[in-house]
Structures are given as C-alpha cells and as structure tokens.
Design goal:
Layout: H1 7-32, E1 38-40, E2 48-54, H2 65-92, H3 97-123, E3 151-156, E4 160-163, E5 175-178, H4 185-199, H5 201-204, H6 217-227
Helix pairs in contact: 1-3, 2-3, 3-4
Length: 228
C-alpha cells in the first residue's frame, strides 16, 4: 500500500529536511570548531569546511550596524511570511510540483538563516579566534540579544586560486579566487531554488492559449496539442 502525500505535505517535508541539514551542520561547526578553523573535505585542496560568521545576507554580504542587523532580521521574517502566502496561492491555482519545490527550497533557506539571526545569539556563547569552542546554552547567557545573532557559514570552495597576469590593466598581479564567498546549506537552498526558477521559468509558467470567439473549441484543443 502506497502512502499518498498532498502537495502541502511534500513541500513541508522538503522544508524540514533542508532545515535539519542546515541547522545540524551549523550547530556541529559552532560547537566543534574554533572560529576560522578549516578542514579539507575528502582531502581536496579546493573544498573546505571553514568556520566563519556574518551579520548580513547570503554568502557573507553584510549590512552594517545593529540597526542594519535588526532591519535585515525583520525583513527576512516578512519575506518568509510572504513566501508562505505565495506558495499557498500557487497550490490553490494548481501550480506544478516543479515550481512549488523551487519556492519550498527558497523558503527553507530563508527560515534557516532566520533561526541563526533570531536565536543563536541567545543560545550560544561567542566564537572567536583561538577563543575556544562555543558553548550551547551557556550559564552566563548568549553573546547577543533576540534577532541580533550571527549567521554561521562553513562551505568554502576556492576551485580557482591564482594570480592575474601582470600585463592586465588595473587588476594585473592581483590574486583571483573563484569561488571566494563562504556560505551554508541555507544559502545553497535559496540559490538552487532561484536558479531553477530562472532556468526553467518557461516550463514552470506556461501561458495557456486563450480561446477566442473566432476559434471554435475543437480548433483551440488542436492548437493546444500542437504546441505541446
């Protein structure tokens, strides 16, 4: 007997799986690595677990000051509320699973980074260079207030690490690294969701052929089949 899941249940499962992987990886890094520590993945010289934190958006992009941090946290919460509303509207409109999965990935990533900003400052001690491991639920309290926590990043893939030719104008001799930003599972989930929407937007958002008075129903049906 096969279990049948509704669209809502499938999307919820996707969100929960991404959130579990995201938060489990962040908590492990936070409690097992000192700030700035780096571990090679499978011995590769271009793939690392590199522990850093940031106050800002995806891939370490920052928005300065406490006011900026608070604004960003509140903006994220508002964005999550809008995403949930929009996904429900898409389901009611009969949207396909492809586009719904994309939005579920974006939603999961947004929630994952919100959790860091909202509660990590309350439940973790500070992580600092050579300052020991962070403690979960320290007796003296966390390192920041509500909505002022730092986002934990750890995925680092400098696949190209070289120096530009000296003859190149302006940037000649400068170090060139790709991919330089350090990110996390939540960032990856958001990026995959957005990129999939951009790449497959024509398949996801097909516009039905309107039926006009000059075009009888049979002709409209034939036209639709030909387009498919």
């Amino acid at each position: 007997m096969r279990l049948k899941f509704s669209k809502e249940q499938k999307l919820l499962l996707i969100v929960l799986v991404v959130l579990f992987i995201d938060q489990a990886s962040k908590i492990w890094v936070k409690t097992h690595m000192q700030y700035g520590d780096q571990i090679s993945i499978f011995g590769l010289n271009w793939a690392f677990i590199h522990f850093v934190e940031n106050n800002g958006m995806a891939f370490g992009i920052t928005l300065g000051g406490k006011a900026g941090k608070l604004f960003l946290s509140l903006f994220r919460i508002g964005a999550v509320g809008f995403l949930i509303y929009y996904i429900r509207k898409l389901i009611q409109a009969g949207a396909g699973m492809g586009v719904l999965i994309c939005f579920a990935l974006i939603l999961a990533g947004a929630i994952g980074n919100i959790l860091d900003s909202a509660v990590y400052g309350l439940i973790f001690s500070e992580s600092s260079y050579h300052g020991g491991l962070a403690e979960l639920f320290p007796e003296e309290g966390g390192y920041a207030g509500l909505l002022h926590g730092k986002v934990v990043d750890m995925l680092y893939f400098p696949m190209i690490d070289t120096y530009l030719p000296e003859w190149l104008p302006i940037w000649g001799g400068d170090r060139f690294q790709f991919f330089k930003p350090v990110f996390n599972v939540a960032d990856s989930s958001i990026s995959v969701g957005i990129m999939s929407l951009l790449v497959f937007q024509r398949q996801f958002f097909k516009t039905p052929v309107p039926q006009t008075e000059e075009q009888p129903p049979i002709a409209a049906a034939v036209h639709s089949v030909e387009e498919e």
